[in-house]
Design brief:
Blueprint (H helix, E strand, L loop, with lengths): L1 H20 L9 E5 L2 E5 L7 E8 L7 E9 L7 E6 L10 E5 L5 E3 L5 E5 L2 E4 L2 H13 L2 E7 L5 E7 L3 H19 L9 E6 L4 E6 L2 E7 L5 E13 L6 E7 L7 E12 L8 E10 L5 E8 L32 H14 L6 E7 L4 E7 L5 E7 L5 E6 L13 E5 L10 E7 L5 E8 L2
Antiparallel strand pairs: 1-2, 2-3, 3-4, 4-5, 5-9, 6-7, 6-10, 8-9, 10-11, 12-13, 12-19, 13-14, 14-15, 15-16, 16-17, 17-18, 18-19, 20-21, 21-22, 22-23, 24-26, 25-26
């Protein structure tokens, strides 16, 4: 009997949710799909808006749900919006709310700044950085938890299942991409401005029609820049929207050729040292024969702006004056063990997130690379050998003080971006050991 009642509630709720997801324009037939615990509704070819929604079942509540969560987008390349819709325990909008995925870090949303009531009892997350951080966590996680103060002053907690969210968001993206191709001239599908960047070495490329501006950091963190003249050519591929931009700085030099694909691209070395999703991937063939890889987003302001400071002008780190909770104050003593652990770490952009002394002449070192890999290493303090070296599971990538101070060995680039403050690390003879980078975002 209880099972039948729950089934009726779910069927009634699925129909009611279509209106909540967002109605299509007059004359437009909505396209709907179920993906486990998520329902997606999109407009027809004339309306690229899509919304995915899930709910907490409560047969005694309005429409059979205690609360709903909606993720929507008005079209390809436009940002996702996230909206909480409780059906009874409404939010006291003068108090903050929090949101997190599983055991990941909690994001606090201040009233009016982090969230606001956009319609009666509809509360939208306003902080773009929070949404950008939550979406990849949701795809890898099990539950999304909102905690807030209700209208009676009590604590309300509502948890939404993430089973099916990856398929739901992928369907939305592919639907909006098809709509964009049908509604627009295929030759104009790439945004008017496209900001691209990559790591190791750090480079930026901003394309605006026939003009592109390129910059790359040199080994001393000075920036070489060039203006390129060229244009787009489309690769005929009805499934993936691929383009080529070809241009050059002046006569006598080879072409810079950028291959651009409309697909999700992940930058694991963003300003916030998290994983940032971008809608385009790019590979750039340089006149020298080298090939650069990176990600792109619409708009000239979307790319990372590389710093122009020379590494030789950075202040020297005062390791003895560091706070006791800053692991880097012991960096010189830990350096032999750090070196052998870094040598075992694969990939590009290898850095040290944290190191600490252990008993019996051992040192623990946590390393990471630019591809999103993390490792725990235990080595002899004198660097004579490595005892253990293991990859860190995704759910265990946080240690106290981790990544606040990151160490990049000499010979590699410290992280770029406006969030970082860098210091040179010298040994007692004045030899450069590398750089400490402090993330202030």
């Amino acid at each position: 009997m209880g099972t039948g009642r729950q089934l009726v509630s779910r069927l009634a709720l699925a129909g009611a949710m279509l209106g909540i997801l967002g109605a299509s324009p007059a004359g437009a037939a909505a396209v709907t799909r179920h993906f486990h615990d998520w329902l997606v509704a999109c407009g027809d070819v004339s309306a690229a808006g899509c919304a995915a929604s899930t709910y907490v079942v409560n047969p005694d509540a309005a429409a059979g749900a205690a609360a709903r969560l909606r993720i929507s987008s008005d079209g390809a390349d436009l940002p996702f919006e996230m909206t909480l819709l409780p059906t009874s325990r409404f939010v006291d909008v003068s108090r903050p709310m929090t949101v997190r995925v599983d055991d990941k870090a909690v994001s606090s949303l201040a009233p009016g700044e982090g969230y606001r009531e956009v319609n009666e009892h509809e509360y939208r997350v306003l902080t773009r950085e929070v949404i950008d951080a939550l979406l990849p966590q949701m795809k890898a996680g099990s539950w999304l938890l909102f905690t807030y103060t209700d209208q009676h002053g009590g604590e309300a907690r509502v948890s939404f299942s993430q089973v099916g969210v990856t398929a739901a968001l992928d369907f939305m993206e592919s639907f909006q991409l098809r709509v964009g191709r049908t509604a627009a001239d295929p030759g104009q599908y790439v945004p008017a401005e496209l900001a691209c960047s990559g790591n190791e070495p750090f480079w930026d490329l901003t394309i605006r029609g026939s003009v592109a501006r390129y910059s790359m950091l040199t080994s001393v963190m000075e920036r070489n820049e060039a203006e390129l003249l060229g244009g787009y050519n489309r690769i005929p591929d009805p499934l993936q929207a691929q383009f080529v931009w070809r241009g050059r700085a002046d006569r006598g030099k080879g072409d810079v050729v950028a291959f651009i694909a409309r697909k999700r691209c992940r930058d694991t070395m963003s300003d916030r040292e998290g994983v940032t999703d971008h809608p385009y991937a790019i590979r750039v063939s340089m006149p020298t024969g080298s090939v650069l890889s990176g990600c792109c987003s619409p708009g000239a302001g979307a790319g990372r702006r590389t710093p122009t400071v020379s590494l030789e002008e950075l202040p020297v780190a005062d390791l003895t004056g560091k706070p006791h909770d800053d692991w880097s104050r012991l960096l010189v003593d830990l350096k032999p063990a750090i070196d052998v652990c870094v040598a075992k770490t694969s990939g590009s952009g290898v850095r040290v997130a944290r190191a600490w002394p252990m008993n019996h002449g051992k040192v623990g070192v946590r390393t990471r690379n630019g591809e999103g890999g993390w490792w725990d290493c235990i080595a002899a303090a004198d660097g004579s050998g490595v005892d253990t070296f293991e990859e860190v599971p995704p759910g265990m990538r946080t240690l106290p003080g981790e990544s606040h101070a990151m160490f990049t060995p000499a010979g590699a680039y410290p992280p770029a971006g406006r969030c970082f403050e860098h210091q040179r690390v010298l040994d007692e003879t004045g030899k450069l050991l590398g750089w400490l980078s402090y993330n202030h975002c």
